[in-house]
Structures are given as C-alpha cells and as structure tokens.
Amino acid sequence: MVLNELGARINGALQALSKASVIDEKAVDALLREVCSALLESDVNVMLVQKMRQNVKKRVNMDELASSANKRKVIQNAVFEELCGLVDPGVQPWKPQKGKQNVIMFVGLQGSGKTTSCTKLAVYYKRKGMKVGLVCADTFRAGAFDQLKQNASRAHVPFYGDYSETDPVQIAIEGVAQFKKSKFDLIIVDTSGRHKQEAELFAEMEQIAAAVKPNNTIFVMDGTIGQAADSQARAFKESVDIGSIIITKMDGHAKGGGAISAVAATGSPIEFIGTGEHMHDLDKFSARPFISKLLG
Ligand code: GDP
Fold first, then answer.
1. Per-residue pLDDT reduced to its tens digit, 142-161
2. Is the C-beta atom of 139 inside 6 A of ligand 1?
3. Segments in the chain forming alpha helices (H)
4. SS3 state at 88
5. Alpha-carbon distance 100 to 184, whole Å?
6. Ligand 1 atom closest to 118 (CA)
7. What are the pLDDT digits (tens) for 259-269?
8. Is the pTM for the entire model greater than 0.80?
9. What was the ipTM of the complex prediction?
10. Which residues form the SRP54-type proteins GTP-binding domain (predicted)?
11. How far apart are CA 160 and CA 126, in angstroms?
12. Which residue has the least CA distance to atom 20 on ligand 1?
C-alpha cells in the first residue's frame, strides 16, 4: 500500500470513530484493528505495529475515558501521537556549523538516490551561506564520477574526483584534505552503493569512514522499497554509525513502511525526504507535520 492510501485508510478509520454512536472499548478496538491492518499492508514491521497498538491502548485509559467529555478527541490524539512516535526516534539530527570543516559521508544502495541527494544537500547548505564541496568516492559504478560532476557543476558546487585513481579511500582522503585546506564549511563524500548488500560494500564504507572520520553519516534509502527496508537499514547500521536518514522518492509510490522501518532499525532521525529528481526537491522532515499531512 502506498503512502497516500495508508493515510486515507487511517483517516477513514478515525472518521468512522467520529460517527460511531457509542465510544467504548469495542469501538477503540475496531479503530485499532483498521489502523494496524493498514500499517501492516504498508509493510510496517509487525512488532512495531503491535507495540503501537499497545501504546494507544495505554494512552487511552478506558476508565478515565468513560468520564471524559470528548472521547473522540482523546482517542484520535492517542493515535496521532503514536503514529508520530513511529517516525520520530526522539533524537535531533546533527547539524554542520559554519566556520568549521564539517564532513558528511553518504551511504546507501545503488539506485537509492544517493548521488542525487548529495547534490541536493550541497545546494541546501549552499543556500544557507556555507562553502560546500562534493567528493566522488564511488569508483565502482561507471558513470558515478560524471554524474556527480555534472550535478555539481549545474549546482555551482566545487567538485573533487579522480578518474585515474581506483582506490575510493585515497580519493576520499585527498578530496576531504583539499577542501579542508581551502576552508570549506561542509564537505560531502559520496560513496559507492554497489548493487546489493555485500561484504565489499560494507568493508569499503568502513575504510572510508575510518580514513575521513565524518562528523555525520547519512543513510539514503529508497522510499518505495517496502519490506526490504528493515533488513537494509539494519545492515547499514551494523557497519557505520548512521547519524541521520534521507528517504528518497517520496513523490512517487513511496510506502509508509520503508520510512518507519528505517527509523526503527537505526534509531536515527529522518532529516530530509527527496520529493523529485531536481536538485531543489529536498524537504526538511519532521514527524508531526508529516503525520498531519499523511492524515490529510
Ligand atoms: P544512487 O545510485 O544511489 O547514487 O542513485 P541516483 O542518485 O543515481 O538516483 C537513482 C535514480 O533515482 C535517478 O534516476 C534519480 O533521478 C532518481 N531519484 C533520486 N531521488 C529521487 C526522488 O526523491 N524522487 C524521484 N522521483 N526520483 C529520485
């Protein structure tokens, strides 16, 4: 089930509650059944869904509810808060500081939208007045160098890459060193995504991380992948210290489950969502407006 269908289903269940003649435990259970089934069909992990159901029931104390003047509001608020909790790990994303040489490393599978998101983030911070540089440390995918270089030049962001060097760690070290020397505020390192989760990919990420010691590592995940999100996010978290998450392709057929699983598996906050292929299609993420919008 894609994201807007998930929103519509939950909204429908909340509206059904508004119309119910009696608000009792049975009505709350019926609402939760529908909300939980919608979440499961959106590929949210079954344990998370169960936890969410228990949490709503804990929030809505039936004895207190009996005497409450606005039962519907109490229940709807409980569901809203718990949905927010699913996409909010309660941690603030790391922020670069102007005047310091901040390094961000991007990780994620090939095709996730990593290279596109590197440029989007560079543009985002450039507009905030930072001096930003991009480093292409992806020597695996033919064309990665040209893609990032082209994006960088379109965005007027300085770029470092080396066609002839085959060791991505060397490129990352050299690129970061050059930009640091020129007192760049933010240096964004794009890494290889390979095709799938494989040992070489994780070893390479670990080596680059050890060499450039990033201040933050951003995990990029395709918002359309559904059930695979949980294991993918877990695998990346085991190798690198994920600081924050960018979920891409939220303009298309994104599934709610992907974003929710990524947060649950990593304990890291979603900082941005990608909403298109253009360099400006990057939206700051925050849980409450996201859930409000989801519910329409
Ligand atoms: P990488 O292999 O992870 O570096 O992925 P790319 O950055 O090359 O992106 C893969 C494809 O996804 C490209 O066609 C991008 O234009 C597209 N893409 C990336 N982010 C988004 C997004 O937020 N929305 C949409 N619709 N497409 C995106």
1. 889 999 999 999 999 999 99
2. no
3. 3-19, 25-41, 46-59, 62-67, 71-87, 114-127, 144-154, 168-181, 199-212, 228-239, 256-266, 287-294
4. coil
5. 8
6. 7
7. 888 999 999 99
8. yes
9. 0.99
10. 269-282
11. 17
12. 113
